[in-house]
């Protein structure tokens, strides 16, 4: 699995704001919004483009467009905070949704919502979820996509733990990971350390 760590200063300053426990919910959401822009920007660098003729006010020339705009899939809840900025950067995209909640005791994901196109053959997908911890949630989501014929999945995360990366690698699915950082480990609650806490709670409040 290709792993790209976006160590750009613009990304790392936003990540620092998200990590800081003193950052309030509004500032946390703003930092996630801006960080997502940098992550998706880097992910899109390898997107195939096609040329087509356009007319400027002066002359005819060639323009550029995405050859195959992606499907964006935010993983609810926390991935919702990445959806707007990804769609703003890639307005040609369409969007699907997956709702997952990690069980506090088993740490395995429970699926509660799924709204995806039936056939994803030939369509690139960008999965948006700030946290890759044990990898259970993103594995579940990526399997849903693969079952629909998707062979081109890019996972966009803010933080990834080594356990989660290993779990995704073991799936053998056609995946690429773009993240702002790879953190040290998971604690006994399977929270990423040093991490940033619970990205869903910090955006939207506790459940
Ligand atoms: C968090 C996070 C990921 C998942 C990561 O969501 O947003 O989806 O846990 O953990 P994993 O890699 O061990 O599966 P959570 O289940 O807390 O739901 P929320 O987004 O609604 O807060």
From TrEMBL:
<dbReference type="GO" id="GO:0006223">
    <property type="term" value="P:uracil salvage"/>
</dbReference>
<keyword id="KW-0328">Glycosyltransferase</keyword>
<dbReference type="InterPro" id="IPR029057">
    <property type="entry name" value="PRTase-like"/>
</dbReference>
<comment type="function">
    <text>Catalyzes the conversion of uracil and 5-phospho-alpha-D-ribose 1-diphosphate (PRPP) to UMP and diphosphate.</text>
</comment>
<dbReference type="InterPro" id="IPR000836">
    <property type="entry name" value="PRTase_dom"/>
</dbReference>
<dbReference type="GO" id="GO:0004845">
    <property type="term" value="F:uracil phosphoribosyltransferase activity"/>
</dbReference>
<keyword id="KW-0808">Transferase</keyword>
<keyword id="KW-0021">Allosteric enzyme</keyword>
<dbReference type="InterPro" id="IPR050054">
    <property type="entry name" value="UPRTase/APRTase"/>
</dbReference>
<feature type="domain" description="Phosphoribosyltransferase">
    <location>
        <begin position="5"/>
        <end position="205"/>
    </location>
</feature>
<dbReference type="InterPro" id="IPR005765">
    <property type="entry name" value="UPRT"/>
</dbReference>
<dbReference type="GO" id="GO:0005525">
    <property type="term" value="F:GTP binding"/>
</dbReference>
<dbReference type="Pfam" id="PF14681">
    <property type="entry name" value="UPRTase"/>
</dbReference>
<keyword id="KW-0547">Nucleotide-binding</keyword>
<comment type="similarity">
    <text>Belongs to the UPRTase family.</text>
</comment>
<dbReference type="GO" id="GO:0005737">
    <property type="term" value="C:cytoplasm"/>
</dbReference>
<comment type="pathway">
    <text>Pyrimidine metabolism; UMP biosynthesis via salvage pathway; UMP from uracil: step 1/1.</text>
</comment>
<keyword id="KW-0342">GTP-binding</keyword>
<dbReference type="GO" id="GO:0044206">
    <property type="term" value="P:UMP salvage"/>
</dbReference>
<protein>
    <recommendedName>
        <fullName>Uracil phosphoribosyltransferase</fullName>
        <ecNumber>2.4.2.9</ecNumber>
    </recommendedName>
</protein>
């Amino acid at each position: 699995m290709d792993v790209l760590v976006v160590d750009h200063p613009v990304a790392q300053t936003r990540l620092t704001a998200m990590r800081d426990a003193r950052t309030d919910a509004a500032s946390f959401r703003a930092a996630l919004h801006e960080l997502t822009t940098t992550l998706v920007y880097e992910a899109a660098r390898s997107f195939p483009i096609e040329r087509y003729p356009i007319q400027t006010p002066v002359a005819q020339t060639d323009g550029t467009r995405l050859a195959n705009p992606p499907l964006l899939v935010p993983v609810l809840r926390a991935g919702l905070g990445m959806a707007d900025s990804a769609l703003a950067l890639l307005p040609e995209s369409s969007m699907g949704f997956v709702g997952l909640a990690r069980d506090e005791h088993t740490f395995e994901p429970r699926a509660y919502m799924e709204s995806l196109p039936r056939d994803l053959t030939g369509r690139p997908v960008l999965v948006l979820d700030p946290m890759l911890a044990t990898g259970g949630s993103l594995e579940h989501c990526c399997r849903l996509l693969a079952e629909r014929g998707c062979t081109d999945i890019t996972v966009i995360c803010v933080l990834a733990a080594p356990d989660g990366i290993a779990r995704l690698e073991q799936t053998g699915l056609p995946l690429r990971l773009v993240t702002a950082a790879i953190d040290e480990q998971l604690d006994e609650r399977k929270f990423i350390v040093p991490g940033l806490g619970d990205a869903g709670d910090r955006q939207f409040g506790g459940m």
